[in-house]
TrEMBL record:
InterPro entries: GalU_uridylyltTrfase_bac/arc (IPR005771), NTP_transferase_dom (IPR005835), Nucleotide-diphossugar_trans (IPR029044). Keywords: Nucleotidyltransferase, Transferase. Residues 6-260 form the Nucleotidyl transferase domain. The keyword Nucleotidyltransferase applies. PANTHER family: UTP--GLUCOSE-1-PHOSPHATE URIDYLYLTRANSFERASE (PTHR43197). The keyword Transcription regulation does not apply. Its EC number is 2.7.7.9. It comes from Larkinella arboricola. GO terms for molecular function: UTP:glucose-1-phosphate uridylyltransferase activity. This is UTP--glucose-1-phosphate uridylyltransferase. It holds the Pfam family NTP_transferase. Belongs to the UDPGP type 2 family.
Length: 316
């Protein structure tokens, strides 16, 4: 059984769509209230989901100089928890979580913005020829399963099948231009698992209708990447080839198409939802979803009802 102990989080982009805040704060450090009711930086929420699923080491692929900024920010958060909430149990536990994160995190700089595939390749030395989990630094995930996170669902299948697995979500056709989209054959006796055959990055609907229809999905829906993957280290050899050929804009999707042609590569319909923080209202949508999935469920529902009532009264 394949054991996945390492995770890579890509966070090198500067977050132009979150202007002006991302000019002064890395977007992965934006604060969000987690399901436990505590304010945390986005990247801490991502990391804690990985740790809870068996990951032992993290590597953040970042822009030059950002590694030191992350460490300083986390150290400051930890120290504030210790000094501002002396003796308070929740603050002590939170500070210990941040200490754990600091002790398990490394950084790999992407010195130039040469494409997402290049960003992933920057973690090759950290991965060191092992299977690894790949996550995005500006996506948050909410599982529909109370006892199993989205990452845990993905790692479970990858470990069982000893192969690369990408998480996917059935996505309505007018949204597929935002995502890598794929098709494949349903795996026998495994609901929601597909042997990947073809992947196209952000396809047009006309191309998707011709080449990416997947039997068994609802009409008008396609399998789109969810923003998390488990890869074997073979992906780095493929990326190396693309870098040697043309180092200017290395995409991940063509490398994944080649991976699907050379070894077993599965897609898993993850039971959960993804929230892209870089999209318009993405941070708001993620915060509402985390609130509804967490301890403040009732409070969030009440607030939403009040806001809708206020908005309705203004339009009458």
């Amino acid at each position: 059984m394949m054991r996945i102990k390492k995770a890579v989080i890509t966070a090198a982009a500067r977050g132009e769509r979150l202007y002006p805040v991302a000019d002064t704060v890395q977007k992965a450090m934006l604060p969000v209230i987690d399901t436990d009711g505590l304010h945390k930086p986005v990247i801490q929420i991502i990391a804690e989901e990985a740790f809870s699923s068996g990951i032992e080491e993290l590597c953040v692929v970042c822009a030059p100089g950002d590694g030191e900024r992350y460490l300083k920010a986390f150290a400051s958060l930890r120290d504030n928890l210790f000094h501002s909430f002396k003796g308070v149990d929740w603050a002590k536990k939170e500070a210990e979580k941040i200490d754990h994160l600091i002790s398990r995190i490394q950084f790999a700089e992407q010195k130039e913005p040469l494409g997402y595939g290049h960003a992933v390749y920057c973690a090759r030395e950290f991965v060191n020829n092992e299977p690894f989990l790949l996550l995005l630094g500006d996506y948050l995930y909410v599982s529909n399963l109370s006892q199993k996170s989205c990452v845990a669902q993905l790692i479970e299948l990858a470990s069982q099948e000893n192969c690369s697995v990408s998480a996917v979500n059935p996505t309505i056709e007018h949204q597929i231009g935002r995502y890598g989209t794929l098709t494949g054959k349903q795996a026998p006796n495994q609901s929601g698992v597909y042997q990947i055959e073809q992947i196209i990055e952000k396809p047009s609907l006309s191309v998707a209708e011709l080449e990416l229809q997947t039997p068994g999905l609802r009409a008008g829906y396609y399998l789109c990447f969810f923003g998390m993957h488990v890869f074997t280290p073979a992906v780095f050899d493929i990326l190396q080839k693309y870098i040697d050929q043309d180092g200017s804009n290395i995409l991940l999707t063509p490398a994944l198409q080649e991976l699907a042609e050379t070894e077993t590569y599965l897609a898993l319909e993850v039971k959960g939802n993804r929230y892209d923080l870089s999209r318009k209202h993405g941070l708001l949508r993620a915060q509402i979803a985390l609130g509804l999935a967490g301890e403040a469920h009732g409070e969030i529902l009440s607030t939403m009802v009040e806001l809708l009532a206020e908005a309705n009264s203004r339009t009458v």
